[in-house]
Design goal:
about 180 residues; alpha/beta; five-stranded parallel sheet; globular
Amino acid sequence: MLRFPLSIREKSIVCTGFMGSGKTTIGKLLARRLYRDFVDIDEEIEKAFGLPIPEIFSIHGEKTFREKEQELIHTFTSQPLLVISVGGGAFLQEENRTICLSNCTVLHFNISWESWKERVQILTDSRPLLKDKTLEEMEQLFRERQTIYSANHSQFQVDDYEAIEAADYLADSLKLSWDIHAPQH
């Protein structure tokens, strides 16, 4: 636990958004641009179990997955100077939203349904929640999740950006914000 409050520049950055919105891809590039370490909570969960996420879901169940997710979010959001990608369902748990919003700067990677649909083919094999769902069921999940992502400090519309452009834009915006909000001596 931290004993003193972090400055806005030192706070870790949490990337949220629906699965496939670019949290990991853009997050890694953003971390590099800001000279920070990148942490993907889903990858950390896979390391902890020694299994890919679809197998964790099928062997241990979603409840066990969510418990490990929450534990790791608590661990990493209490550390400074990270860029952290949280899974698309992490903010379903109020405790995860609260800890992220309290300790970090939360960026919501917003994507339109039309743009997301173009990515669905590459997403379905690796995302257990999409397995065997119709496009209509996926859209319902997409729409239901939008309300949980409204808990953020800033929202970024990813539709029209390549990953590197998004990371550059976000890094420049964060640096400007840090300068504006820096304590005056």
